[in-house]
Amino acid sequence: MKLVQEQRTKINGQPIIAFTLANDHGMEVTCLNYGCIITSILVPDKNGKYENVVLAFDDFSSYLTNRPYLGAVIGRVAGRIKNSCFELNGKTYRLYANENGNHLHGGKKGFHHIIWQAAGFSKKEEVGVCFSHRSVDGEEGYPGNVDVQVTYTLNNENELIISYQAISDEDTPFTLTNHTYFNLSGNVKKDILQHELKMKSDRFLPLDHEFIPTGEIKDVTGTPFDLRQGKKLREVIESTDPQIRLVGQGYDHPFILNTHHDEEIVLFDRESGRTLVVETDEVGVVVYTGNQIPHGEKMNGLQSRKYLGICLETQALPDAVHHPHFPSCILQAGQLYSSTTKYTFRVSY
């Protein structure tokens, strides 16, 4: 196991450090203390060739805006909150509105533009980095001081484990996710249209015209959202279903998972042989097929475009603060928030 730290640049005199985690089999994960951003995951294909399977900007300066939230930890609340407000304990809180009057992915700065405190660690069978941050009362409009810890751990089973923990001194909405875009072709040789996605989910959440859940919970049967037997993403993207068309021909939808830590999400690229298995204790996952990736950015040596990557954002259900029948996303004062998502990389020959 190996851990390498390298300063990439500085922001207002603060060093931006890249941590590269390497296991004994050659898998590597590189991440930054800026936004806990994952910039590279090197894993083998069926011929043993190691390539990067995530999207990353060519130039660090692009992360200072990071319109597609590439590789970052998202918080305090992942997803959208309608009208940028919510009521809690008899009080109305107004959040920073950063998308059509709504609150998206934690607001203007969120957790994705934070320089986190970071400490690497190395053990016999695992290596990792622990990031920490205090989100102060009133930040982006949220109540309470929240102490947050995010840990990335790589082991010799080719598993990347992301563990989130937090504690607040006031009740507050809280749910984190990671916004990495995966492309298993390796070094973005192709887009994701030939990837196959399989998921243990019987239900999804339809969206309104602002991409916010309507409150309905719908059975996937007979819809393009039925991934229980697996689907090629091209089939989904070419669908004429109104929900697929609504978000720019693809997914940007929350799914409710049937099971947890049970190979519930599987992404497969037949040509490279790479498989990604995602397991989590979160209630759901937002699947985003990169329909709104902005053009004109430099990513992985290419001009950015739609469908270059897919996000599998494990989290509480978006806009849960406005839907009492959704599982609550309120972190109670003094209660420990704890969530784990595991990403396992395999090869099929």
Automatic annotation (TrEMBL):
Catalytic activity: alpha-D-glucose = beta-D-glucose
Pfam families documented for this protein: Aldose_epim (PF01263)
Coiled coil regions in record: none
Keyword 4Fe-4S carried by entry: no
GO MF, one annotated term: aldose 1-epimerase activity
Keywords (A to Z) from UniProt: Carbohydrate metabolism, Isomerase
Pathway involvement of the protein, from the record: Carbohydrate metabolism; hexose metabolism
InterPro entries (alphabetical): Aldose_1-epimerase, Aldose_1/G6P_1-epimerase, Gal_mutarotase_sf_dom, Galactose_mutarotase-like, GH-type_carb-bd
Entry's EC annotation: 5.1.3.3
One annotated Gene Ontology cellular component of this protein: cytoplasm
Active-site residues annotated for this sequence: H179 (proton donor), E313 (proton acceptor)
Residues engaged in binding beta-D-galactose: H179, T180, Y181, D252
Gene Ontology terms describing biological process: galactose catabolic process via UDP-galactose, Leloir pathway; glucose metabolic process
Family: Belongs to the aldose epimerase family.
PANTHER family per record: ALDOSE-1-EPIMERASE, GALACTOSE MUTAROTASE
Protein name (record): Aldose 1-epimerase
